[in-house]
Design the sequence.
């Protein structure tokens, strides 16, 4: 196989990915091997690849490829999430652009549009993952809204309902006015906002010009006030007991209630109570039996209870009501105020607390085994610091609002009866039987029943993902699930630890009686080099496919992994991908160098090459042990860098230089075969990180049979490294570096051979290596170095290079003495400062440290210069 002069990713990557697909290397079926299973965190079906996906899926592919090469039956299950809110919003926007309103369509008509959209856009992100090299078993591709997954979702709902875990009721929920649906607490993101604090006057009923002042950040909600609360211990307001105050502008009298819930020190000590629009006010309302006035429509405009503001948007009302309160003399003052405001994680609009009839899942009992599993390390978190975050949420878990006011999703399997009440069933036919049994009315028909119009939260399907990708949740004899479950590793971002990770663990224990995965690896958030989170709005997020086109998939994979320690944010810079591409080129050029050598089978192996082979074998074994340990600890970036340094520093910079034959000279067979074997091992170690270039070169390394691939070749197994040999070789490296440094200092050309004198102990067996890499013609053990020799120490042994006629001694002495005089003068100026008591007393610690460092550096240089001058004068 001919190797091109330059590496071209575009000519390599597509070719080998298709080869892997054609040969079925990604496919997995249960067998006698140890399974290694990953389920993909399903991206939104209508999404496109972004840098977070790149990081997450690169890590998954590294782990799955390595598992194959360890001889395991590796199964990576791909799939997508139907993403109720996001997908429905896109379909609604598309229809709006065509002049069609969702409200003009029946549910079935709308769903037809949604499915068309999904079929058109749904496969894009999975196709993009193939460009990255993702080695998923594509035959197993799942979709959270497909028939198999949907059946399990409905089965689970019915099961939990029958167990008493699911209930329906009016509760305070987070309302998204843009998506017009309830959200769970985890779907609310709190952001710091520059707001205003409004101080409003509530007149005391029946008392002229007497009022109290109530502070609020949301003056529009006064339209739903049904009380004002003060602390019974607050003497300022004791006169209000049993009285009423008037809600500003709308003149509605509301009672004063007294409760120690109110903090006397906070604000004015008076709290307006709006039970329909604040969770704490709702609890007060329940306690004191207050009426509830909901002032908002589902889209965030005010309804008829908004009085003169009915039909206006909530924020327009806020602006207008400020003016109206001012004009009415009912505004005490307005202050700038910073507070945290909840935003919808899906639509990025401020949420509204709202009383709403919803479906809820009780979480406390489900949470207990899931909490214990993580705290006992039955399920291990990497890094472990996320255990505390998880524990806090699980110990304070709230019931999960699982209903959404959407059409795209799993429709809630509840059927309402004409005379009230409901039944929960798989389908309308089953519901009818249950309804007839419940009512005793055998004349009921399917047309008499009305199915709930809401659908389930998207996470209600994805929390079952590790189970449902292998089949029915309640099928205990499923061959796939019995083999692949529990899965091995979950790779995910920490921002969905509650949405997804915790809930999957709960579902695993509830429906399978065991954990869903053994390890959870938390990636960081991908940020730009300035530390900002990557986003379309900031314009700081590169297009992953453009990066792949420019640097190659291997270069991008390596670039992102260079900055990706587990659990820490990733500061991404395109320069990392360039470094990755440069490494590709380094590997390519090293391979071309080796394959370009001519082999002479009659040549005996040079001593230097024998040493190099022994040394590099130990270096390789040591690195393999280190890499295995780092993988066990999920320190993937460090594992990759260990292999990178092994190839770049030890193999390319040292090993190849030692064994490289002279210009147009052949290499001996034994050294060449060892070198090809090393290259084979290095390519295997690199393959999980850089799959494409390693396959290309591995195929060209030896003649291969059709159907062979590095991705199913086994990783090399390390043997015990020779630590003494490696330590000795490290000293040899120092000697060679010292010789090269003298060449550089004295401008002696590399082609000019040097002599080397050794004073002290040394291992002469390494002399052939020193001679070759230092271009040293003669090495001699002496008791005293030659006159004019320049020396350096390695440990306690002195190495001297006699310069002889290679330098002009007189000229060199002038240079050295001039430099010595300068350094002595510089030292005196530093000491003068440090001897100045006034300077030392007033100077900052950093300045003093810098001056002392200057002193130490100057003293070191003076000592070295004096030694060199003495040597030249001998």
Sequence:
């Amino acid at each position: 196989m001919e190797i091109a002069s330059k590496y071209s990713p575009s000519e390599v990557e597509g070719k080998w990915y298709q080869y892997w697909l054609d040969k079925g290397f990604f496919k997995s079926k249960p067998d006698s091997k140890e399974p290694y299973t990953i389920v993909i965190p399903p991206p939104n079906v209508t999404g496109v690849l972004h840098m977070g996906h790149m990081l997450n899926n690169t890590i998954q592919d590294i782990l799955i490829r390595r598992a194959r090469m360890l001889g395991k039956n590796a199964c990576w299950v791909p799939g997508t999430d139907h993403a109720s809110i996001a997908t429905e919003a896109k379909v609604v926007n598309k229809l709006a652009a065509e002049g069609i309103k969702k409200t003009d369509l029946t549910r079935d008509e709308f769903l037809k549009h949604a499915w068309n959209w999904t079929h058109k856009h749904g496969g894009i992100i999975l196709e993009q993952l193939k460009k990255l090299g993702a080695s998923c078993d594509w035959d197993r591709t799942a979709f959270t809204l497909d028939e198999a997954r949907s059946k399990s979702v409905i089965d689970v709902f019915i099961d939990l309902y029958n167990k008493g875990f699911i209930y329906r009721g009016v509760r305070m929920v987070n309302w998204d006015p843009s998506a017009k649906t309830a959200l769970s607490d985890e779907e609310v993101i709190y952001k710091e906002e520059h707001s205003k604090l409004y101080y409003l006057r509530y007149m005391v009923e029946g008392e002229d010009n007497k009022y109290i002042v109530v502070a609020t950040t949301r003056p529009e909600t006064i339209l739903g006030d049904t009380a004002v609360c003060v602390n019974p211990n607050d003497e300022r307001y004791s006169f209000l007991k049993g009285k009423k105050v008037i809600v500003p502008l709308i003149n509605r009298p509301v009672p004063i209630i007294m409760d120690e819930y109110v903090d006397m020190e906070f604000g004015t000590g008076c709290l307006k109570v709006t039970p329909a629009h604040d969770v704490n006010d709702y609890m007060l309302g329940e306690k004191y039996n207050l009426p509830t006035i909901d002032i908002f429509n589902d889209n965030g405009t005010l309804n008829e209870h908004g009085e003169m503001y009915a039909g206006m948007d909530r924020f327009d009302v806020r602006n207008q009501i400020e003016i109206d309160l001012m004009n009415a003399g009912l505004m005490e003052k307005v202050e700038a105020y910073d507070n945290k405001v909840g935003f919808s994680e899906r639509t990025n609009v401020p949420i509204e607390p709202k009383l709403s009839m919803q479906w809820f899942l009780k979480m406390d009992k489900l949470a207990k085994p899931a909490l214990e599993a993580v705290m006992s390390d039955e399920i291990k978190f990497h890094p472990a610091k996320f255990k505390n975050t998880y524990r806090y949420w699980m110990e304070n878990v709230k019931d999960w609002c699982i209903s959404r006011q959407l059409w795209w999703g799993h429709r809630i399997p509840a059927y309402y009866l004409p005379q009230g009440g409901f039944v929960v069933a798989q389908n309308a036919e089953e519901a009818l039987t249950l309804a007839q049994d419940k009512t005793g009315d055998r004349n009921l028909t399917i047309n008499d029943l009305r199915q709930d119009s809401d659908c389930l939260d998207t996470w209600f399907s994805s929390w079952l993902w590790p189970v449902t990708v292998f089949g029915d949740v309640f099928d205990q004899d499923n061959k796939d699930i019995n083999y692949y479950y529990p899965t091995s590793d979950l790779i995910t971002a920490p921002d969905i630890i509650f949405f997804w990770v915790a809930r999957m663990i709960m579902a695993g224990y509830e429906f399978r009686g065991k954990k869903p995965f053994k390890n959870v690896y938390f990636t960081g958030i991908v940020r730009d080099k300035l530390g900002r989170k990557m986003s379309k709005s900031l314009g700081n997020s590169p297009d992953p496919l453009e990066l792949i086109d420019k640097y190659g998939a291997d270069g991008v994979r390596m670039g992102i992994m260079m900055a990706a320690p587990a659990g820490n944010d990733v500061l991404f810079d395109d320069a990392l991908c360039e470094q990755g591409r440069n490494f590709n080129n380094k590997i390519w050029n090293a391979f071309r160098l080796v394959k370009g050598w001519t082999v002479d089978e009659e040549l005996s192996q040079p001593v230097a090459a024998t040493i190099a082979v022994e040394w590099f074998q130990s270096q390789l074994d040591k690195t393999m042990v280190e890499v295995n340990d780092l993988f066990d600890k999920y320190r993937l970036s460090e594992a990759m860098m260990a292999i990178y340094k092994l190839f770049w520093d030890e193999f390319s910079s040292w090993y190849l230089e030692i064994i490289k034959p002279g210009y147009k000279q052949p290499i001996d067979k034994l050294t060449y075969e060892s070198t090809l074997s090393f290259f084979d091992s290095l390519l295997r170690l690199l393959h999980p990180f850089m799959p494409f270039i390693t396959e290309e070169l591995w195929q060209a390394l030896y003649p291969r049979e059709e159907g062979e691939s590095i991705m199913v070749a086994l990783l090399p197994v390390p043997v015990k490294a020779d630590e003494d040999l490696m330590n000795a070789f490290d000293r040899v490296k120092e000697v060679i570096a010292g010789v090269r440094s003298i060449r550089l200092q004295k401008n002696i050309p590399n082609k000019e051979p040097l002599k080397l004198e050794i004073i002290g102990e040394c291992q002469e067996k390494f002399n052939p290596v020193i001679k070759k890499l230092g271009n040293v013609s003669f090495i001699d053990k002496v008791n005293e170095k030659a006159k004019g020799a320049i020396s350096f120490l390695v440990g306690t042994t002195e190495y001297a290079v006699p310069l002889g006629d290679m330098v002009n001694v007189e000229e060199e002495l002038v240079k050295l003495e001039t430099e010595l005089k300068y350094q002595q003068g510089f030292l005196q100026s530093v000491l003068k400062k440090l001897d100045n008591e006034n300077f030392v007393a007033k100077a900052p610690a950093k300045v003093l440290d810098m001056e002392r460092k200057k002193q130490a550096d100057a003293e070191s240089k003076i000592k070295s210069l004096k030694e060199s001058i003495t040597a030249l004068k001998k």
